[in-house]
Amino acid sequence: MTNTEFELGGINHLALVSSDMKATIDFYSGVLGMPLVKTLELPDDLGQHFFFDCGGGNQLAFFWFPDAPDGVPGVSAPATTPGAGELTSAIGSMNHVAFHVPPEKFDEYRKKLKDKGIAVSPVLNHDDSPAGVSREVHEGTFVRSFYFQDPDGALLEFACWLREFTEADVAHEPKTSADRTVS
């Protein structure tokens, strides 16, 4: 499957908003090991914009605004990690950021985060069953993942693909705004 309209090379950067840029650096560089590669002071004292290398030529960026409103758990981002509570967030919000990790390092990386004091979710083996996950990896498992949160509550995920997708993986009719239960 290829894009016939644009030659896209992935995500250039994803920009989130931080309440404390120092804590953001401590977490993303100190805990996750992402190099801080660019820092900017925005003009007219609007704030800061910092970029971290998250691998594969992609960047994770953060804005810090002195007058940014506080995030609202369950609105701005999910209130908890999947398996521990609610996954829902508001329309237009960023629900979570999933970082690709090698399948052979998946369990090691989960343990490493736990050893650093980071609360991680149970491992989810995503499949096409009615529950969407299974306890064990099987031939229908397409991705393994676990979730954790950054200092501002942004939901993060370490995920590893276990198989390539085929045309058979696109089999559901898309829902519309008319299908929503809340307006």
What does this structure look like?
The protein is α+β, with helices and mostly antiparallel strands and 183 residues long. It folds into two domains: 1-68, 2,3-Dihydroxybiphenyl 1,2-Dioxygenase, domain 1 (Roll); 77-183, Signal recognition particle alu RNA binding heterodimer, srp9/1 (2-Layer Sandwich). Helices cover 11% and strands 28% of the residues. It contains two helices and nine strands, in the order βαββββαββββ. It has helices at 21-31, 106-115, and strands at residues 13-18, 36-42, 47-55, 58-64, 97-100, 124-126, 133-134, 143-149, 155-161. The strands form two sheets. A five-stranded mixed sheet has the order 5-9-8-6-7, with helices on one face. The protein is globular, with a radius of gyration of 18 Å. It starts with 12 loop residues before the first strand and ends in a 22-residue tail after the last strand. The mean pLDDT is 92. It comes from Amycolatopsis acidicola. Residues 10-161 form the VOC domain. This is VOC family protein.
Notable traits:
2 domains, GlyoxalaseI/FosfomycinResist, 2,3-Dihydroxybiphenyl 1,2-Dioxygenase, domain 1, VOC family protein, 9 strands, globular, Signal recognition particle alu RNA binding heterodimer, srp9/1, alpha+beta
Concise structural overview:
Helix content is 11%, strand content 28%. The protein has helices at residues 21-31, 106-115, and strands spanning 13-18, 36-42, 47-55, 58-64, 97-100, 124-126, 133-134, 143-149, 155-161.
Summarize the topology:
Blueprint (H helix, E strand, L loop, with lengths): L12 E6 L2 H11 L4 E7 L4 E9 L2 E7 L32 E4 L5 H10 L8 E3 L6 E2 L8 E7 L5 E7 L22
Parallel strand pairs: 1-4, 5-9
Antiparallel strand pairs: 2-3, 3-4, 6-7, 6-8, 8-9
